[in-house]
Amino acid sequence: MSRSLKKGPFIDHHLAKKVADAQASRTKKPIKTWSRRSMVTPDMVGLTIQVHNGRQHMPVFITENMVSHKLGEFAPTRIFKGHGAVGDKKGDEGDKKPAAAPAGAAAAAAPAAAAPAAAPAKK
User: Fold this and answer.
1) Closest residue by Cα to residue 63 from 88, 85, 84, 44
2) Hey, what long-range contacts does 30-38 have (CB within 8 A, 24 or more apart)?
3) Per-residue model confidence as pLDDT tens digits over 39-68
4) Taking CA 33 as the corner, what is the angle to CA 27 and CA 36, rounded to the nearest 5 degrees?
5) pLDDT tens digits, 71-86
């Protein structure tokens, strides 16, 4: 459910203060924030805000098209690695059977292995 228009956009006070300071000083230093719930306002356009995604801060350059969206939308928290089971990828060696040895190599190895096991019969 979206926020009521009569309430106005939500932005954390500490983030609004940092944005106002950055606009006043005209610095391009990124603003680091954990506030993913704050909305992008028109006074943030042109700033770089580093939004925390749970592991690291993702740099987000704010453009006009981002106004009225939440900051968390631009810093994904999950990495999609694809559908499918393990071993379905092309070139994966996990599910393949080992290649059979050439016929001559197997025949040569068998008598050598059997020779020490058989003892000569004495009379």
Assistant:
1) 44
2) 30/59, 32/57, 33/71, 35/11, 35/71, 36/70, 36/71, 36/72, 36/75, 37/10, 37/12, 37/70, 37/71, 37/72, 38/10, 38/11, 38/12, 38/70, 38/71
3) 999 999 999 999 999 999 999 999 999 999
4) 130
5) 999 999 998 888 987 7
Alpha helices in 1-123 (DSSP H): 13-25, 103-114
Read off the pTM.
0.63
pLDDT tens-place string over residues 8-27: 889 999 999 999 999 999 98
Both structure tokens of 42: 């028109």
Tokens of 73: 């939308």
